[in-house]
Write a structure and sequence with these properties.
seven-stranded mixed sheet, 14 strands, 44% helix, alpha/beta, globular
Length: 477
């Protein structure tokens, strides 16, 4: 039997998630509600995760119809499904070994699906070529990112490997870096400027790593999670020049690329910007770009389908990456099919297009409405400041807590924003997550919650937060 000292020190260095504190309280509250214990609310509203379907929005009909026929091939001949959904399922099944979703696929994914992802990338990027040989499908984009980090992070090196990582940032990524023996080199997004990235801050972060670690990569999230900003072309060009000059590998997490709401905001991929900058940068900067079927309008988080496209990597390195992905056999076949349906949705003239267009427009309009409402409500409450949400799935408002609240949190052994989230859960039945989970400047506090709920649910969340916040601030002021 292992004892604690036998566990990898890298694993022990991973910071426990604040979510665990809230998850234990949530479990207890749900149990009490089932037992009839009286509370100020009848049910808990969970807006802690970026899960479109958990938030209450419905799956896309075409996606589920095609997947249903893939799982139960008899439906391919059924008139109960639209003809284009049946044809898509028939094609996908023909591309599976044995005509079944239960069969293994090649390491990188079903070859025809990988080819169609490559064609999607070329269309998205205005004709910039994409090779299927540089694409790997895996069980979600984080799995892809983890594998690329395994290549970049040398746990035996001295000094240790560093990765420049945004603050705030996706906590799963930071945990992965630490678990592999790497060092987080934080760079801070500028909250008062809409969480924008400034290259001067990247230089400060790089300078701060001298003598502590050897930075080898820069991790970017665009659109931001949890910060919700969308990078401009000018900002991306500055980042690309920076990584080229400093010889850093560029990791571009672009999973929220379909969710952009800002009136003057537009998603542009790092690959496209790099290509359009031309030589020598276009031929030299090493880039890994990540996308996923979990996010965007498709929102199929549980099917576990993501991919990475690799740009400008040495062929010798690509051989090792192929070997690394091979250790996982293959990504779930339904996840691969979900990716295919995401990058090749129904087109005008197809039988499923009118319903598909109606459903995706409903989601888009819901999110645009929600973004405005979150900003209006939170910025009207004393002690809150919410920057405009330009993209992504979350609001990340700053919370100005009085000294009395901070002292109470300290007495409870909690971070101040965790204390706020626990009180909100217990007294208003809303589950959100604290900013300390994602990193924040010292002596600042935030909360993060998903904005992808149907309008009526979001209105109830905002009502509960408003009522709780008013009472809480009165108590601790």
């Amino acid at each position: 039997m292992f004892v604690l000292q036998d566990i990898s020190q890298n694993v022990k260095n991973i910071k426990p998630l604040e979510y665990e504190i809230l998850a234990r309280r949530l479990s207890l509250i749900k149990k009490e509600l089932r037992q009839g214990v009286r509370k100020p609310f009848k049910e808990v509203i969970d807006v802690s995760m970026g899960d479109l379907h958990m938030a209450g929005l419905k799956p896309l009909s075409f996606v589920r119809q095609a997947l249903a026929a893939c799982l139960y091939p008899q439906l391919v001949n059924s008139s109960r499904l639209p003809v284009d959904a049946r044809q898509r399922a028939q094609r996908l099944l023909a591309e599976c070994v044995g005509g079944s979703v239960g069969s293994y696929t090649p390491t990188a994914g079903i070859p025809e699906v990988v080819q169609r992802i490559s064609e999607f990338i070329t269309r998205r990027d205005g004709g910039v070529p994409s090779s299927p040989d540089n694409i790997y499908i895996s069980p979600g984009s984080q799995w892809c990112l983890m594998n690329i980090l395994k290549v970049l992070v040398n746990s035996e090196s001295s000094p240790r490997t560093g990765v420049l990582t945004p603050v705030p940032s996706h906590c799963t990524t930071t945990s992965s870096i630490v678990g592999l023996g790497g060092v987080i080199v934080p760079y801070y997004l500028t909250e008062e400027n809409g969480w924008q990235l400034h290259v001067e801050e990247l230089q400060r972060a790089l300078d701060s790593a001298k003598g502590l670690c050897n930075p080898v990569a820069l991790y970017i999230i665009n659109p931001g999670n949890p910060s919700g900003q969308v990078q401009s072309r000018k900002s991306m060009q500055e980042v690309i020049r920076f990584v080229w000059e400093k010889r850093l590998f560029l990791l571009a997490d672009e999973v929220y690329q379909d969710l952009v709401y800002g009136e003057n905001s537009e998603f542009i991929s790092y690959k496209r910007v790099l290509a359009e900058m031309g030589p020598p940068l276009a031929d030299a900067v090493e880039l890994a770009s990540f996308h996923s079927a979990s996010k965007g309008f498709i929102g199929e988080c549980g099917l576990r389908g993501g991919y990475v496209e690799l740009v400008n990597l040495d062929p010798a390195v690509m051989k090792h990456i192929h070997t690394l992905f091979s250790t996982d056999s293959c990504a779930p076949v339904l996840g691969q099919m979900a990716l295919d349906l995401m990058v090749n949705p129904p087109q005008p003239g197809d039988p499923s297009y009118p319903l598909y267009h109606m459903e995706t427009e409903h989601i888009r309009k819901t999110l645009v409405h929600n973004v405005k409402r979150v900003s209006e409500v939170l910025n009207s409450l004393p002690g809150f400041c919410c920057q405009p949400v330009e993209g992504g799935a979350f609001a990340f408002p700053r919370l100005f807590l009085p000294p009395k609240a901070i002292q109470k949190a300290k007495e409870m052994g909690m971070q101040p924003d965790t204390f706020y989230c626990v009180r909100l859960l217990e007294e208003a039945g809303v589950l959100i997550l604290p900013g300390c989970e994602y990193g924040q400047k010292e002596d600042t506090h935030h909360i993060r919650f998903c904005i992808m709920s149907p309008q009526d649910i979001l209105e109830e969340v905002l009502r509960r937060i408003s009522c709780f916040h008013t009472q809480f601030m009165r108590e601790v002021s």
